[in-house]
Structures are given as structure tokens and as C-alpha cells.
Amino acid sequence: MRRPWTFAERIAVGLTASLVVALAIAGGTALALRSLLSSSEYLTENRVMHLVEVERLRRAFSEKLASLHGYELTGDVSFREEAVRARELFRESLGALRSHQEGPEERDLLEGLAQAEQAHEDAALAMREALVRGASPEELAAYVKRRDEARRQTYAALNGLARYTEAAFRENAALALLSDRQALWLILAVATLGLLVVMGLAWVLTRALWPLHHEAQASEERFRLLVEGVKDYALYLLDPEGRVASWNPGAERIQGWHAEEIIGRPGALLYPPEAMGEGGPQRELERAAREGRVESEGVRLRKDGARFWAESLITALRGEDGQLEGYAVLTRDSTERKRMERAQRLFAEAERLFLATQDPDLAVAELARLLVPELADGCLLLHLSPEGELLPHAVAHVSMEKEALLWEIIAHRRPVFREGAVGVWHVLRTGKSELLTEVTPEVMEQVSTDAGHLELIRRMGVSSALTVPLRAGGRTLGVLVLMSQRPERRFTETDRVFVEELASRAALALDNARLLREAQAALDLIGVAAHDLGNPLQALQLMLGKLRRALPSDPDKLREVLTTAVRHTQRLGRLLHNLLDLSRLSSGKLDLEVGEVDLAELVHEAVERHAEQAAEAGSRLVLDVELGVVGRWDRLRLERVLTNLLSNAFKYGKGQPIELRVARTDGHGLLAVRDHGPGIPLEQQHQIFERFKKAPAQGEKREGFGLGLYIVRQLVEAHGGTIRVESREGEGATFTVELPLAPAHQEVGASEPPPGLVH
């Protein structure tokens, strides 16, 4: 008969059996936990890697588009090389995704993306080849359409792949959360079972589970490092009340808040005040809780108050029981992408505008409306007149009140040149664009002329400005000013490049309009010249024929015929001299032959030379001449000035005295011609010195080129002098010429705007 077990033996066997059972349970639990956690970790890490690679694909394709656009604009080979590198990065990321693809759906998405990107590359190459061979606009438009379609298909494929990857990431994250919960319950069950088996095995179980706990912590740490390594996304969690529960470095980089500053605070702080006022953040969370996820795009707020465009994905996190536990938010800064899309759209619209509109001036005016509000809140297009004035060509603003205020600023504006100054005159003089990312009070003071002007500028509330010269043919024709009032819309270097290209096309359109007007004026000049040269020539031929047929026996009659013939030859001479001077002025080849000239002597000679013409007009010449007004001038050109002024006086002041005055004033010689004719209306006085402009007296038939006073002004200004007119209707007109007694200089001072800037 076998001896029964002692108590000690029973205790030992029980403890041994309990220990074996506890060890078996602990070992099985450890193996299950290891397998569960490893699988969850692998799936989560794999999907995060997929998220990163998909974003790299999107960035590589966007960088490729931007580089190709820069290459098309500038022709710089470096942009083309950057596009090649960006495409290589795209193919590398695509290859990485293919090597880790899971399932046929992801494989199909990757193949569709590869085909779309290849189609875009082929379309871009075909377009460049068409440009090289000089294809027609219709062909180029077809290639542009093909390339844009391929670009849209590529972005659609990228968005589809991103949605698939994000859905897989959320699914794996949910599985990881579930795995963690199952592991927790398993640990609790094993601990309870160990306590029931034997309290003495607690330290064994603790030591057995400690490595597993340590491994779980290491896995969590690796996952945290992986998430924090994603720098291009803001990834954070919100609790069910919408307060920030976690914050990754990508969120800190994009939105400016440190984790310790934002955790525990409402996520609505990341939205602009107007969105918070309308309850937008809370509505998005409610929709996410109702639908599971919400995709949105809109303006977000950085810590410093700066605004930016962002794409956000909000996913509701629920437990096994369906209870809402919080939200996962994934945000990406999309400001540059939207800016590039807007620039491409504006380029296409501008191309259509310049090609479809027959009137270049109208096309340029419409360009201002096109830029507002798409690219700027306000737009001001100024062109340079022949007199050196900046005149408004187009003014546009999103607000009618601010547009009226812009007109006030234009009316108040005067040219200001200061060392280091900024603004339209600085851009006009240098021919270089000016980017003000932030318009500070100091900048406002620099561009203002006085306190009233400064107050108008402050009322505009401009936060950022971009001023670009309109250049064509080596000349600066004007400036294009873009203004932004919203903090989130600040102009960048990308905007500068884009607007400079648009401005060059607008300048070309303005220059074409000028050439068209000058060509039409030249045609008018040919017609008027043929008429005005033909009349005296025909009359002269008739008189000479009459003399040839029968010589008048009456000496007075003969003298009358010869006097008329001489008058017609003088008129022909004046017309020819005016045409010759116009030709030299237009070609810039007018050279002055300077010598000492006495204005009193010049006036006396002119009176003798025009005595017969004065007698025929019934006008008595009255002189008020100061002697000794001598300067270094071109005598023949000043005779032409005086002849043209006297011809106008005889024409409009018939039967009335003509007054000539010579005087010395403040280092200048003064020459004035006054008639007592009908006078010149005030609204016409500013244009009578322009080419092909004249102000005929009431009832007078329009004759002549309209060049006399234009040539007078050009000849006077070539001497460094000025000419002005003073007139009232019914009281005649006085033309006053002031000539410097010192040698003439053609240099333009730094304090006055040159009338037509050439660089």
C-alpha cells in the first residue's frame, strides 16, 4: 500500500501544479500578446509609411508642375532640371508604394496614378515640341487642353490614393486600439487567475509580464516617434468636448503652437474669428460624429494671427460600444497649391482675354477686373503720358467704397522722389518690381505726400502690396499696383513672377495701342499734308501760268500777284520746315546749333520779316522790348518758334494789335506774343501743345496739321525752357516762352519725373 502524501508534499505538488498552470497561462498570454502587438505595430507603421509616401507623391508632382511652369515662363534650364528631379522623386515614391502594396484595390490605384502621370509627362513633352516647331495657336490650345486634362486626372488619382490610404490608416488605428484593449483585458484576467491560484505566484507573474509591458512601451514609443516624424501634416487628437488632447511636431510647425500651450484648450482656436462666430468648428465636429468623417478646406489661423489655406480630415473615434471617445484631425497647408492653381487659371483667362479682345486698351482695362478679386482686393493700372504724368488707365476694387477712395488717392497723388523711397514712382524710375509682403506704417509715410494723403492711404487698410512696371520695347509705359487687405492674402515671390509676366503682356498691348494710334495719326497727317501742300502749290501754279500767258501792264497788279505768290511760297516753306522738325523730333535726331542770340534783335528782325503779313491781317505789331537779353541758343530754331507764334496770332487775331514783349526774369529770357482774338477755352488749353491737336476759332474751317504749337513746345524744351498759355474766351491769348540764360542742359533732376522713362 502506497504511503499517503504529507501536507508538505501536497503543498509542494499544489504549488508546483499551480506554478505550471500559471506558467502555461502566462506563456500562452505572452505569446498571444507578442503576436497581437507585433501585427498591430506592423500594420500601423506600414500605413503611416504609406501616408508619408502618398504625400511625397503629391509634393513631387506639384513641384514638377511649378518647375515646368517656371521653365515655360523664363526658359531657365534650371527649372527644367528641377522638374526632372521632381519626377524622379515621384517615380521613387511610386516604386516604394508598389513594393508594399496590399490588395488589388491599392494596386489598381497605383497603376492608374502611374498612367495619369505618364500621360501628363507625354502631354508636356508634346507641347514643348510644338512650341519649338512654332505650332499654331489652335494646336497649342489643343496641347494645353490635353496637358491640363492629364494634370487633373493625376490629381484625381492622387486624391483617390490618399483617400484609400487614409481609410486604411484609420482602420489599422482602430484595430490597434482594439488590440490594446484586448491586451489590457487579457492582462487583467491573467492577473486575477494568478491571484486565485496562488498569491505567492504574484511576483512570478509580475516578472513574467514585465518584459511584455516593457515591449509594449517600446512599441508605443516607436509609434510616437514615427508619427512625430511626419512633418508635413498636423496630426492631433480632440476629446469629445473638442479640446486638444495630443499635438505632433507637424502641427507645431504648421500652426505655431507648442504642445504645452495648446493641449487642453479648445480646437476652435485654430479657426479664424468669423468662423468661430458662425459656429463652423462645432458644426464640423457634429458632422464628423454623425457621418464618421468630414473633409473640409478653408482658412485656418496660426498662433501669430496669420491665416492660411488648409485641407482637414476629421475622423470620429468610437469605442467597441459605439461611445464617442474623441476625434482625430489630419491637416495639411494647401496655400501654395491653391496659389498655383489660381495662377494657372488666371494665365489661361488672361490669354483668352488678350486673344479675344480686339481693342488692346479695353483688354488691359479688363485685366484689372480679372485680377480683382481673384488675386488681389484692389488693382490700379497707371500709364505714363508723353508729358511724364502717371494717368489712371484702370481702377478696380472689391469694395465700391474703397474704389472711390482709390480715385481720391489718385487725384491727391503727386510725384515724390526721396532716397530709398518706395512706391509707383520708384518702380517707374528703376523699372524693377517692388514686393511689400507687409505694408507697415513707416511704408505708408514714405509713399504719402502730406498728412491728408497719408490719412487716405491709412483708410485703404492695405496689408500687402505688389507694384510691377509695364515694360515694352525697353521702355517703361506705366505701373500695375495690386493691393491686399486680408492678412491671409499676402503677396509672395511666386505672385511677383506671375504678375510680372501678366504685366509684360499688358504693356505689349498698351504699346500696340499706341503704335496703332500713331499709325492712324500718320495716315491723317499724310492726308492733311497732301491737302495743305496742294492748295498753295496749286494757287502758285495758277498765278505763274497767268503771268506767263499775259504779263499785267499795271505795276500794282503785278506787285499784288507776286506778293500773293510769295505768301504761298512762305506758307509752303513753313509747312515743309514743320514736317522736317517733326521728323527730327520723332527720330530723336534734333541737334541744336548753339550760339549767342539777342532776343531783342531776333524780335526786330521777325517784325520786319512779317510786316507785309501783318498789314494783310490788319494787325499792328506793338513792341515792348528790353535790350541786352542775350543767351546761348539756336537762332534758327528760335526764329521758327517766333514765326509759328506770330502765324497763329495773325490767323486768330485779325484786325487787332499783336503785342510782342522781351524781358529778363530770374535768370531767364522771356518772350511773349499776345493777340486779341477769340481766345482759347480752358478745357482745350492743356492739349493745344500736343501733336495733331489744335483749337480752331468758332466758325473756322479746320486746316493744318496741328503741329505748330507741338513743335514750338519741343524746340523750347530742347533749350531747357518752358512755354505756357494764358487765355480767356473773348479776351485773346498770350503765349509766354521762358529760356534759361545759362547753357541748356538735357539732364532730368532727381526731384522731377522724366517724361518717358527708358532703361
Low-confidence stretches: 1-8, 414-420, 696-705, 744-759
Question: Mean pLDDT, nearest integer?
Answer: 75
Give the CA-CA distance, first to last residue.
124 Å
The overall strand count is: 18
Q: What is the count of DSSP helices, taking H or I runs of 4+ residues?
A: 22
Biggest β-sheet description: 6 strands, antiparallel
**Gyration radius, to the nearest Å?**
43 Å
Helix share, percent: 55-70%
Give a quick set of tags describing it.
59% helix; elongated; 759 residues; 22 helices; disordered C terminus; alpha+beta; single chain; 6-stranded antiparallel β-sheet; 5-stranded antiparallel β-sheet; disordered N terminus
Topology:
Blueprint: H1 7-74, H2 77-99, H3 103-132, H4 137-197, H5 202-228, E1 234-238, E2 244-247, H6 249-255, H7 259-262, H8 273-277, H9 280-291, E3 293-301, E4 307-318, E5 324-333, H10 335-356, H11 360-371, E6 378-384, E7 390-397, H12 400-412, H13 424-430, E8 434-436, H14 441-447, H15 451-460, E9 464-472, E10 475-484, H16 493-549, H17 555-587, E11 594-598, H18 599-609, H19 611-617, E12 621-625, E13 630-634, H20 635-652, E14 658-665, E15 668-675, H21 682-685, H22 708-718, E16 722-727, E17 733-740, E18 757-758
Parallel strand pairs: 12-14
Antiparallel strand pairs: 1-2, 1-5, 3-4, 4-5, 6-7, 6-10, 8-9, 9-10, 10-18, 11-13, 14-15, 15-17, 16-17
Helix pairs in contact: 1-2, 1-4, 1-5, 3-4, 10-11, 10-16, 11-16, 12-15, 16-17, 20-22
In short:
With 759 residues, the chain is of the alpha+beta class. It has helices spanning 7-74, 77-99, 103-132, 137-197, 202-228, 249-255, 259-262, 273-277, 280-291, 335-356, 360-371, 400-412, 424-430, 441-447, 451-460, 493-549, 555-587, 599-609, 611-617, 635-652, 682-685, 708-718, and strands spanning 234-238, 244-247, 293-301, 307-318, 324-333, 378-384, 390-397, 434-436, 464-472, 475-484, 594-598, 621-625, 630-634, 658-665, 668-675, 722-727, 733-740, 757-758. Strands 6, 7, 8, 9, 10 and 18 form a 6-stranded antiparallel beta sheet that branches. It has a 5-stranded antiparallel beta sheet with strand order 2-1-5-4-3, with helices on both faces.
